[in-house]
Amino acid sequence: EEMGDKGVLGNTITYCAAISACEKGGQWQRALQLMEHMHEKGVPANTITYSAAISACEKGRKWQKALQLMEEMRETGVPANTITYNAAISACEKGRQWQRALQLMEEM
């Protein structure tokens, strides 16, 4: 928000950095807000962006949201990588969703 107030436009790289910082700081809600803000501004998300957001969900024990983000990736054609899958599987594990975790492992 501050960047926008100062006339600095966010791009995929700046959003990735901010979402990663939120993930590392345990701010999963803020990470998801930034993802939403990206979509609103028409800034394309990439694998790294989604991976950071899914990892933030994992740390926040929000396995459902992590799986929603995985589905969003499929729908928008953004490829998942090992880091993405590991974060989603870990989110399922923390949510005691072992069957979903196994499904993700099979997808890899």
UniProtKB/TrEMBL annotation:
Q: Which PROSITE patterns match?
A: PPR
Keyword Repeat attributed: yes
> Keyword Repeat: yes or no?
yes
| Keyword terms | Repeat
- Quote the InterPro entries the UniProt record gives: PPR_rpt (IPR002885), TPR-like_helical_dom_sf (IPR011990)
Record's signal peptide: none
Q: Spans of PPR repeats, please give.
A: 11-45, 46-80, 81-108
NCBIfam families reported for this sequence:
PPR
Q: What is this protein called?
A: Pentacotripeptide-repeat region of PRORP domain-containing protein
Organism this protein belongs to: Eutreptiella gymnastica
